[in-house]
């Protein structure tokens, strides 16, 4: 046979025998070296590649061990029948290369992560108790297929909790349970008129816009003002508005009562108009009286209420829920092949018991105090430097927005954050139509340990000091 035309890089950190092994293995899988074909002898190949015979022997031994090559006494080395191997990844040329863009984000010690909870105060022991009950007690009904809307016990607890905490009017029959907000929204879009035009807040949680795009649903954007979105100028039939009125994501704006009433009037003016109210982290309000949900003001069955346990318990619980207006609930029951029943019943049991025994209420009260402490420490530290930072959207939830006031661009801020090992998301990542050049960042604080909050704030301040200015390219 012809000599193997392989490039061996002796300066690489990878051992030469492994480079050779990889090259021969790839050639066999791709068919460049066929079954029964003889490989060069160890002496021939070592001379040709200017490497030791031991290197060649190590490469051949590895190939023999894996079944790609067979050794015949006094005859040499031959390509084996790879069709008999249990698994061969034949598409090596199509393997995704790890580029700079696809490499994992470096782990920075100063993380202002969105969606993270306080793990130190997770109710592990309580939930373990209910999990044990779910699996060890003779509850054989939990291994059967449950109701497509979710188990009645959980829906009952959700409806009672929403009435007492958010003023939401709902019976258990109106509640549907799913494994994520994305799935809830997918179900809702299947129920609403197929030619509906959706109006979305801008800036916005990206998964909402991505879901509509994936389902080829028409949408446009509404600009978020200091008092919320303004709906009066939008007219037409079969429109749907998706909003986060209690704590707009990501700006943190709370929609004023005037804007809420205007939005409800807009929905009532024409049949088939609906408002999807995402109330994702309303449990954590730190200033003033709790603001009732928009659904509590609705008298026409126009508001679809959506929320989740991701912030109030944990993202891994994977339970989201919606309260459907009666007309849509009836339509849901009649609709065939609609999504449902995706949350494991043991998980539903665990959460329903957590709520029924008032542990959920006590957990929320405890976490509200802890998150308030974290927020207050951050705000007190950051507010000492108005020449660097301005804070907004801090009255509710587990994040707020900082506007950089030191004269830097967003790119300069990001470069300095990386230099100071800070992970924080720019608000521009959530903007679509209404863009701005003002550098703003969404500061999540839920997952920062309480004893590290002040050091996080000081590191952020340090990164924005003029003496540390890093010019962008």
From TrEMBL:
Its cofactor is pyridoxal 5'-phosphate. InterPro entries: Aminotransferase_I/II_large (IPR004839), HTH_trans_reg/aminotransferase (IPR051446), PyrdxlP-dep_Trfase (IPR015424), PyrdxlP-dep_Trfase_major (IPR015421), Tscrpt_reg_HTH_GntR (IPR000524), WH-like_DNA-bd_sf (IPR036388), WH_DNA-bd_sf (IPR036390). It comes from the Bacteria. One of its GO terms (molecular function) is transaminase activity. Residues 14-82 form the HTH gntR-type domain. The keyword Transcription applies. Keywords: Aminotransferase, DNA-binding, Pyridoxal phosphate, Transcription, Transcription regulation, Transferase. In the C-terminal section; belongs to the class-I pyridoxal-phosphate-dependent aminotransferase family. This is PLP-dependent aminotransferase family protein. It comes from Staphylococcus ratti.
